[in-house]
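Hi F.,

I've been meaning to write this up properly since the lab meeting, where we talked about keeping a consistent format for the predictions we share between groups. The idea is simple: the sequence comes first, exactly as it goes in, then the structure tokens exactly as they come out, then a line or two of notes. No screenshots and no reformatting. I'm using this chain as the first example so we have something concrete to point to.
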Amino acid sequence: MSDTPTLISALGHALDARQSLIPQLHAEGTDAYRLFHGTVEGRPGLTADRYGSLILVQSFHGPLAADDEAAVAAFYQSAFAGTDVIYNDRSHANSRVSNPLPPDQLARAEALREFSELGVKFNVQARHAGQDPWLFLDLRAARRRIMAEAPGKSLLNVFAYTCGVGVAAAHAGARHVVNVDFAESSLSVGKANARLNTLATRPRFVKSDAFAAMRQLSGLGQPKMVRGKHLPPFPTLEKHSFDLVFLDPPRYAKSAFGVVDLVNDYPALFKPALLCTSEGGTLVCCNNVAQVARDAWADQLVRSAKKAGREVREMEWITPEADFPSSDGNPPLKTLLLRV
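Output, unedited:
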């Protein structure tokens, strides 16, 4: 049931709560941030994100009523003059965008735009061949921390998606950056992002299954045949350790090389990532599953490291910034920095 005044009131309260944050972000070269985090700001399943000239509204629990959609667009166009508000209904199977747009609005949705985060330039489209936005804004805190750590260091960015962490690290002065993802389409966006910026070093982009890449880089090795069956082709990589490793896997994925399962078997990913990390280096791990308890997950990583013969010398939680409020201090995205 539609209750437009209540929804617009919630959007207004959320914007008021960001009145000090937004100028701070703009001052440091950021014009991309969450405007409405519906889970804790009055409309679960609804989000609104600004990416420069684009305001992307998305619904995940059910479609917006037509009058709500129009009111939300009017609200943000009034608050941010000159922006385009695009609505994606992602409440259907597999969170796929399902709502058609009229031709003029579709053209604006498919337009390639630039925005900035922490002085780093990125591309965005409201509608593209995939489903998710090309940069996840709740990871800004992690990208900020990687930029602080990166100068003069090497970085391995696994499950790189559109390579935001890798491009940010290169912009901050990393001496060597390797981005690994299985999707050529995502790496293509990452390459375009790199070209937008003046970088001291050119990042490397490796199209590979994460398990195959990490097993080779760590020295564990990746056979080409398992139980008499040929595995899909994968690039050959030499053993190489990194000062920084960033691990941001999806909740669940299965390939011929292994299973990604953040609920039941994070250590299967953690061990090869750990072995890619130099002695005295830093491994940053993400887990975006809300049902995974933060402290239990951290304990699991410490035990896994010890089992692999590595000690966790220091741990630090990296929490999403103020545009991603949490009602209980335990946001779904958990990011843990480990000195190993």
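Notes:
The chain has two domains: 4-111, 137-339.
Residues 4-17 form the longest helix (14 residues).

If this format works for you, I'll send the rest the same way.

G.
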